[in-house]
Write a sequence for this structure.
């Protein structure tokens, strides 16, 4: 029978894992993740074209890059730990609403950079980030999208509605009736989607002057409409 000595009883797998841990590689990976995360932060701030810039969301992109790299470093050398980490992360849900599809691009970019840095593919992460950053900066500044407007009008006769459409046809590039509803007192509320020529705010003033119009409002929106 094989004898067990005092050292075998207190032998710890923790010490074995600590011995295989490379402090230099870990610091290099985390430093690379931080620098590339800051690059993602800078590109997002430069290319943001939304309504309200969220500094906290931008900071989270940089932190997510570092955190992802840290997780990959921890699970890369231990299969059991990787399975446990997958189970733990499966209960995490990102519940913050993403209004701009480009925000998803930056989230995915941050995660990919963190994975590459954590796995040791730092050069690939650097090259890929530079290419993605150049593409985003160039196309974000070159491409401009003109959002449509909604014109909501209340009127009380069919002839007034025809006159409103005549004005819209004359003063806009394109218009489309999105909804029309009857209200109390034989009043009609119509919603038009319009493409203005040069941010022409005179459209509402012209419509408001039409006999039979009780109210006229023009709103900017992102192109999504729910009737």
């Amino acid at each position: 029978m094989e004898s067990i000595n005092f050292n075998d009883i207190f032998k710890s797998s923790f010490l074995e894992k600590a011995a295989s841990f490379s402090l230099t590689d870990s610091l290099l990976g985390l430093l690379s993740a931080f620098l590339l995360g800051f690059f993602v932060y800078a590109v997002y701030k430069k290319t943001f074209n939304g309504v309200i810039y969220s500094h906290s969301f931008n900071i989270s992109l940089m932190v997510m890059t570092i955190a992802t790299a840290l997780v990959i470093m921890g699970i890369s050398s231990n299969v059991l730990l990787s399975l446990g980490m997958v189970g733990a992360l499966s209960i995490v849900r990102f519940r913050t609403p993403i209004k701009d599809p480009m925000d998803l691009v930056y989230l995915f970019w941050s995660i990919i950079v963190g994975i590459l840095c954590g796995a040791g593919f730092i050069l690939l992460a650097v090259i890929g980030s530079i290419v993605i950053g150049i593409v985003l900066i160039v196309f974000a500044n070159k491409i401009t999208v003109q959002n449509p407007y909604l014109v909501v009008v209340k009127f009380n006769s069919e002839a007034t509605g025809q006159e409103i459409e005549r004005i819209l046809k004359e003063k806009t590039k394109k218009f489309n009736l999105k909804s029309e509803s009857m209200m109390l007192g034989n009043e009609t509320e119509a919603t038009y989607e319009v493409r203005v020529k040069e941010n022409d705010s005179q459209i509402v003033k012209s419509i408001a002057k039409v006999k039979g119009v009780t109210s006229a409002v023009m709103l900017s929106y992102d192109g999504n409409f729910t009737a």
The radius of gyration is 29 Å. The chain has nine helices and four strands. Strands lie at 149-155, 172-183, 187-196, 213-220. Residues 116 and 124 are 7 Å apart (CA to CA).
